[in-house]
Amino acid sequence: MLKFILLALLFVSSLYAEVPNEITYQGRLREYGRAITGNKMMSFKIYTQETGGNSIWNSGDVSVAVSSGLFNYTLRPTGIDWRQKDLYIETTISNKILSPREKITAQAYALHSQSSEKIYSNTDSVFVIDGTTITTINSETVSINGNLTVYGNFNIVPAGTVFIYCSTYAPDGWLLCDGSSYQRSQYQNLFNAIGTSFGSVDLNSFNVPDFRGMFLRGWDNGAGIDPDTASRTSMNTGGNTGDKIGSVQDDQFRHHNHMENVWAAGTYGVRPLRGSAEDPSTAEFGTTYAGGNETRPKNANVNYIIKY
């Protein structure tokens, strides 16, 4: 009578977007206390209970290479609901069923992400999982207990969003707001958001905003707070003018005046010079200037970046 002793390890493959369901079955096989070398006919079945019952998956008979008692075989089960808490693998070697069955650990439940389904919660949120995309509908929060690793793009900031950034170069996914021209096809999402508001040199390109040295102002949008919306000009050729996003204004003082009293000495004494005098005299007067090259508040240099 053959007597087999099997020490087995189950490893669930790392599952990312397009990796198939795989379980790596590794074991050490001994016959009458000696390590086996050669090919052995084996079969693997998956059950929902430790003993008895009917299998829910069967590999059929397969030839497995064994070297010095060690073997390694990859199972590719299909049609299994990995949400079940208890799943067991039964191994048969040379028509001899080995017991007990090996329980599949919780790691295998990562395979569940390969299945497409809808999950409804009591908040009427819908999660659609297709192995590459998770979409939430009418969900205010998404809670993750543990670490989140993202492969590919994870967009939670909409294209066209402008942030302050304290570095010389823009990070991945962002462009400097320096007025540069880009191809519309290269940054389609950003172009869809801002269009040619900040200019365009041709029908295939668009400009990002040029906020270098600029203070930003909220769009008036008919509120009447900006009295000079009609005279606003475009930032670059082809950009918006008037009361539209992307238009600009040059620096300006609000109009005002100053009153001066000028005293003149003439035949009839010293008096304020108002209109014509009995003995008018000629006088030159004025004010001295102070300040710098522009009117500005205290400020610090930063970069503006825009999400694409």
Portion of residues in beta strands equals 25-35%
CATH architecture of one domain: Alpha-Beta Complex
Query: What is the residue-mean pLDDT, rounded to a whole number?
Result: 79
List unreliable stretches of 5+ residues. 12-20, 108-126, 128-132
| Order of helix and strand elements from N to C terminus | EEEEEEEEEEEEEEEEHEEEEEE
Our count of helices gives 1
According to DSSP, the number of beta strands is 22
Q: Which CATH C-level class of one domain is it?
A: Alpha Beta
Query: How would you characterize the largest beta sheet?
Result: 10 strands, antiparallel
Amount of helix: under 10%
Distance between the termini: 70 Å
CATH topology name of one domain: heat- and protease-stable fragment of the bacteriophage t4 short fibre, domain 3
Question: Rg to the nearest angstrom?
Answer: 39 Å
Mind telling me the CATH superfamily name of one domain? Phage tail collar domain
Q: Tell me, briefly, the overall form.
A: rod-shaped
Kindly name the structural category. Answer: mainly beta
